[in-house]
Amino acid sequence: MYLSFRRSEHALLALAFFVVMVLIVFSTLLYFAERGSWDETLGTFMNSDGDPSQFASIPAAMWFVIVTITTVGYGEITPRSFLGRLITVPLLVFGLLLIALPTFVLGREFSMVWDLMKEHQASEEEEEELPTPLASPILRRNRNRSSWDMRLDSLAAEAMMPLSAVNRRHAQRDRAELASQLNDLRATVETQGEMLRRMMEILDEKGKQRAVRENEPNNGWS
After folding, report:
1. pLDDT for 136 beyond 50
2. Where does the pLDDT of residue 192 fall: very low under 50, low under 70, confident under 90, or very high at 90 and above?
């Protein structure tokens, strides 16, 4: 999970910056849309219904924005005017994106890290299955531990890379794997072609022998 956060660092920072900007902008808009008129007697803003305004300050409007975009919705502060409700509509949509985007980013990165760890575990199991009579269990454990440390270092290095560099690295690895698979497929096709050619030669030879036997004169008794 730590590596997933590290790999998603830039995306999460960009999302946090966007949240702060939305918080400031919409809090200011709601403050001016919902503050109402100033009452000298009570020393506070009054809304159109004659009640003290719930958006008497930008921090109060900021609290409403936080409650709205996090989809908590306490309900103790609500916009009264049409303009305030109109400004609130984009906040509702942004609240859904605020929950969906981090889940998608972290889920994707966690899946990639998990696949890499599973590949490493499978490679370790294959190495353990190989016959190594000269290697002691202690040396084997040290070798596996050092290999695991190297893999973690590689994952940490990828986490520090920009997303474009990581994608290029994965693309290069995918191309290398594809080239290896194509070479294996070419070798398999060539081997099968050679086997088919030999089978055809054997069948042709048997056909010629049968034709020779059929064309030989019958010297037996009639």
Report:
1. no
2. confident
Answer whether 22's CB lies under 8 Å from 65's CB.
yes
Q: What Rg, from alpha-carbon coordinates, does the chain have?
A: 37
CA distance 66 to 75: 12
Q: How far is CA 218 from the centre of its chain?
A: 80
Q: Which residue has the higher pLDDT, 130 or 97?
A: 97
- Do the Cβ atoms of 164 and 10 come closer than 8 Å? no
Sign of CA dihedral 119, 146, 113, 175: negative
Backbone angles phi, psi at 48, to 5 degrees: -70, -20
DSSP code, position 72: -
Kindly indicate the confidence band of residue 89, based on its pLDDT and cuts at 50, 70 and 90: very high
- Tokens 């400031």 map to which residue? 24
- CA–CA gap between residue 68 and residue 94 (Å, rounded): 9
